[in-house]
Amino acid sequence: MTLALRLGRTVNELRNSLSASELKMWIAYDRLSPIGDWRGDVQAAQISTAIINTQGGKATIDEMLLKWGKAEEEEEISGFEEWMGAL
Fold it and tell me: Which among 16, 64, 65, 70 has most CB atoms closer than 10 A?
């Protein structure tokens, strides 16, 4: 689906026009340079982490990274959340 979205084609169009060897090349390329929206989420998390840390906070990329499709679990308030709450 991600490749179809990125190429502006339907999955059916890709099935009918993409050879197995070309699909293997896309898979290898995706490992080197992700073609999905996940890469943008990681980049946004890196920037958010850098900004928060330069302002005296303590954040990790994992804390800033969006967690799509995962059910929210009740967790203890992290140091970062406490710091943000104090602002």
Answer: 64
